[in-house]
Amino acid sequence: MNKKKILVAGATGYLGNKIVAELIQLGAEVTAMVRASSNRTKLEEMGVKNFVVGDMMDAPSLAEAITPTYGFDAIVASAAGYTKKTKGDSPITDTVQNLVDATKAAGIPRFILISILESDKAKSVPHFHNKYLIEQYLKEKKQPFIALRPGAFLDQVPDYIPDKIKKGIFPTFLTGTYGAVYTSELAKYAAMAAVVLPDTELNKPVDIGWDRPVNGKILAQAFSKVLGRPIKPKPVIPSFILKVIFPVISLFSGNIRDMYEMIKWINTGVYVSRNPQRQKKLFGELPTVEESVSHYCRDRGLI
Questions:
Q1: Cα(214)–Cα(19) distance, integer angstroms
Q2: pTM
Q3: How many whole angstroms separate alpha carbon 180 and alpha carbon 195?
């Protein structure tokens, strides 16, 4: 059987690396799209032999990098969005609009988008809402796609959690309940979406998360259970700063405003999976909170 030819945009990133590893495990022939200045060493060590050079903010470079001659079966867009705009940019330039255009022009039959849980309801949060705009743009361009909508990531870049856990603390940014995912799980699903899922599942979003929503208390309890010692939740940002200081600073800083709006929106309780059964149908049993925390702890050398 011929190997599936998969192009990964953002392959040098944290999530991208994991998606590449999962694709290789599934027997796919992986091509990594990188910038000219990107360090390819880790990808080469993983076994990636094929590279194309392209910049998501440079449409001509994408047209040159992604051509029909490669015969790609799917593209996985794991690259992070951009927030810097220039005059004339549309509301979705800072995500992957150029990449969608290049994919459509090259005739690639499947586009895997890493979107965001409930992004269609997040108009007040720019970098969340832009993911929904990309989903709509894919439909408008009639580019076949699968949008994976993960919740909040348990692991961060850089990951500040292990040092806190060693001190008996689970750091929390949010006071509400929300959906969550571990990056390794999302990478596995993205690879399956590119290689395994049938065409009947195209053009539909898939909520991605655990068996139940979480909050700081639930996660701290999961870490306590996995590690066999007390772990207490502790807010990273004091409530006074969130309620009084952040609103003022957000008037003068776009990044702070985006973060403030994100925290407010998530804390309303809307950031949860509405259809976990679809994830279960496509990818198997949903990970439990404890399973994912255990996986995380093993990967971080905490157990």
A1: 25
A2: 0.92
A3: 24
Query: What structural domains and CATH numbers belong to the chain?
Result: 5-151+180-210+273-287 (3.40.50.720)
Query: What dihedral do alpha carbons 15, 254, 57, 3 form, nearest 10°?
Result: 20
Contact 139, 203 (CB under 8 A): yes
> Cα(66)–Cα(63) distance, rounded to whole angstroms?
5
Distance CA 271, CA 73 (A): 32
Distance in angstroms between the alpha carbons of the first and the last residue of the chain: 41
Nearby residues of 146 by Cβ (< 8 Å), 6 or more positions away: 110, 111, 112, 113, 193, 197, 201, 202, 203, 204, 206
Distance CA 96, CA 92 (A): 7
Per-residue pLDDT at 162: 96
How far, in Å, CA of 193 to CA of 140, rounded? 21
> CB count, 10 Å around CB of 16?
25
| Partners of residue 9 on adjacent β-strands | 33, 77
Position 2 scores a pLDDT of: 76
What distance in Å separates the CA atoms of residue 98 and residue 117, rounded to the nearest whole number? 22
DSSP reduced 3-state for 32: strand
Query: What is the Cα gyration radius of the chain?
Result: 19
pLDDT mean by block of 10 residues, the chain; 303 residues: 90 96 98 94 96 91 93 90 46 70 97 96 90 94 98 90 97 91 98 97 96 97 98 86 79 81 90 96 98 97 94
CA angle 46, 47, 52 (to 5 degrees): 105
Q: Which amino acid is at 61?
A: S
User: Minimal CA–CA distance to 102: which of 131, 67, 69?
Assistant: 67
| DSSP H or E run through 77 | strand 74-77
For tokens 């806190």, the residue is: 164
Consecutive H or E run containing 299: helix 289-299
User: Which token pair is 55?
Assistant: 């910049």
